[in-house]
Amino acid sequence: MTLNFLTDIDETLLTFKPGVSSPRSTSSVMNAIRSYAVEVKKRTPESVEAEIDIVKKTVPWWSWTTFLERLGMDPARFWEYAFEYESAYLQPAEPDLPSTFADLKRRGASFFITSNNPPDGIRHKLRLAGFPNPERIFTAFLGATQMQAMKAEPLFWRKVIPETGVPPETLCTLGDDFHDDCEVPFSEGIRRAFLLNRDSRNTGRQLDGMTLIPSISSLKELFA
Ligand SMILES: [Mg+2]
Fold first, then answer.
1. How remote is the CA of residue 92 from the centroid of ligand 1, in Å?
2. Strands (E), the chain
3. Which pTM was predicted?
4. CA-to-CA distance for 170 and 3, rounded, in angstroms?
5. d(Cα 7, Cα 113) in Å, to the nearest integer?
6. How many CB atoms lie within 10 A of CB 16?
7. Which of 70, 111, 117, 190 has a CA between 20 and 30 Å from the CA of residue 46?
8. What is the Å distance from ligand 1's center to 81 Cα?
9. In 3-state terms, what secondary structure has residue 3?
10. How far apart are the CA of 8 and the centre of ligand 1, in A?
11. 144 C-alpha vs ligand 1 centroid, how far in Å?
12. 149-168, pLDDT tens digit by residue?
């Protein structure tokens, strides 16, 4: 198998724990920042919101570090805090994800991350998904901040394809969102997609070149 997977994070590698009624969002780190600034840095919630607003209004492609700097927060300490904070409601989407990926790599697959998370958020989310050393699995992180476009925009994929440095016909996507992970990349020339259907949210979706899969580990049978 010579396939280069463009791999999504949220709801693909990482999911909310059952029973957690949080909105599905890439941005839950913002709540960890708010909480750390108030609890540890003893800021008032109002002053924290004001600083967050300034960053959002003045920095178009921020990363979480932009907020940490603005709020005078120690990055190493904050990311430990954020790991604990988000572990309360986020969990790996499947058991043994690192061994599934290592297995697929042994069969010739390569993996890139394609995510709307900023680069520091990608590293954080991968750790939550069970990848403390993501470089062992993922060739490169291609995030929205770096591409200066979101996955829902054709521009993101137009930039990602040459950035991978591999033949475009070997690229496929692996994600949970029919629009962002299938329709938009296909509009830019990607021909193959594996769309997760863990909770039947994508039942009935159809597109030439797209395969619905119940789990990432099912790829092992597909490429046995
Ligand atoms: Mg997703």
1. 13
2. 4-7, 14-16, 90-92, 110-115, 138-143, 171-175, 193-196, 210-213
3. 0.94
4. 5
5. 5
6. 18
7. 117
8. 24
9. coil
10. 5
11. 13
12. 999 999 999 999 999 999 99
Which amino acid type is present at position 186? F
CA nearest neighbour of 75 among 40, 43, 126: 40
**CA 47 – ligand 1 centroid, Å:** 32
What pLDDT score was predicted for residue 19?
79
Mean of pLDDT over the chain: 94
Examine the pLDDT at 22 and tell me if it is beyond 80. no
Nearest C-alpha neighbor of 178 from the set 143, 140, 150, 204: 204
Asked if residue 45 has pLDDT above 90, the reply is yes
Q: How far is the CA of 182 from the centre of ligand 1 (A)?
A: 11
Q: Both tokens of residue 13?
A: 């590698």
Dump pLDDT digits (tens) for 86-129.
Answer: 999 999 999 999 999 999 999 999 999 999 999 999 999 999 99
Provide the token pair at 184. 């938009």
26 C-alpha to ligand 1 centroid (Å) = 9
Taking alpha carbons only, the member of 51, 85, 53, 83 closest to residue 68 is 51
